[in-house]
What does this fold into?
Amino acid sequence: MNAFGMIVLVFLVICAIATSVSKNLLVSVVIFMAYSVLMSIVWMMLESPDLAITEAAVGAGVTSLLFFITLKKIHAIRGDEEEDHHDEQE
Amino acid sequence: MIEWIRFVLTALFLLGGLFILISGVVGQYRFRYVLNRMHAASMGDSLGLMLVMLGLCISQNDVFVILKYLLTAAFLLLTSPTSGHLIARLEIATNEHPEKEMELMQK
Amino acid sequence: MTNRNDPPKNRFVGWLMGEENPLDDELELIVSTSQQEGRDVLSLEEAERQEEAEELRREKLAIDEKSQSVRIHSWAKHQGAHWLETLYRIAAVVLCGAIIFFLMTTVVALPPFGAENNPYNNEVSQRYIEQGIPETGAVNFVAGMILDYRAFDTFGESTVLFVASCGVIFLLKLNDHSSGKPSRAMLEAEYDDRHHEPKNDGILQFAAKLLTPVILLFGFYIVLNGHLSPGGGFSGGAVMGAGLILYLTAFGFEDTRRFFTYKMTRWISCLPLLCYAGMKSYSFFTGANHIPGGVPLGTPGAILSSGFILPLNICVGFIVMCTMYTFYALFRKGGM
It folds into this structure.
């Protein structure tokens, strides 16, 4: 595997770990989008463009949209200020 | 000779685009407020990516590949400023104390 | 009028003829519907007062539960928690280490990537590579594989998508009031929908006006060219769904409803699935193993070739597009 593939795979692992480690759910979803884009590059390098198109459209596009809407529905998207306010109340 | 000129032009455009993209990333980490960070990010998106696309166009021989690059550039030029505008608008709509971060013009 | 003491057959016939079910009076169904109607008619102040009372009651309950749980779990909170947490951390580290160790051992033991005598280079892939194009007529023989050799599998996938969108509709769709007026939950969702979102944003609308046709065209191109180039029903359908979602985000439900209603979504989701089932049934009926069944394969590489793969691709594409759009619309507002 060439150097570019190595770099992409290392970033893939970093993104996968960061998705599960990050505390903020919104940040998690954004990192998951980056993971999907990197994954579609990896599919492209493994010579399966079918999967690359699907991963870019579904993984990076529609899935994260659904995640965003769900986070908005359950009121999990908060600014810093409101979070501080919330902490003060408790 | 013409090959050399093309190579130098491609390298210049690519390096310029990379410089602007990297400065955009640095700005996103250095700035604190949303609008400043968004300015850095969307400048990197539009100008940097356009320079990279121009460099790639110069480097290619095939007309259809160049056309595809141009179409990609047009798509990016339409989408990334729009998303930047939407983020800015959302920030202005939801921030309750914008005067803490910036000077507001009096109506 | 059927009687309660009738044998079950007569009751069934009565139900078929549209007569009233005599058992309805005894079930609690009617009571709950009358309550439902009564609650929707209530004035706003009444509803607020009820909500406040409910909240008070809930707070009281929470305090009670808290005191009880303090009494019950005091040991676990003070002595046991610390001990358990340490155990939990040690167990997590050990488990992670063990899994990493075994997976890495497996990776080391794998044969090299792309080697000649790997176990996956068997007679199946040989057959696909040698006979794929003459048998299916598709130049892109990934499409030939998933829509011809393994079409039953893809049928199951489309059904899974269909069932998923049905489940989302069951769970999230808000219904109209029986009198035709929108119910209170619907009005609240309508108000909540674009509270912080751009309403009639000129720049977004301009970009969407330019981009949506292009995105839809590109998605349809991917669907139609599924048997010639990379792509196919699933990816093209996802791209088309994303285009519709962009239009919906820019122009809102009112404008989208002009050309893409809930009724139309139902038809577009159900008809392609039925078409798929019909076409594949015909294919299996005529022998499945490429005994000529009257469907010409055409010349490989032409747009009208490869038998059933092109219409099957179109069916899958429409199902996927509707599923994506349904998910987005129902997640966002609970309606279309």
In short: Chain B has a mean pLDDT of 86. Helices of chain B lie at 2-30, 34-59, 63-94.
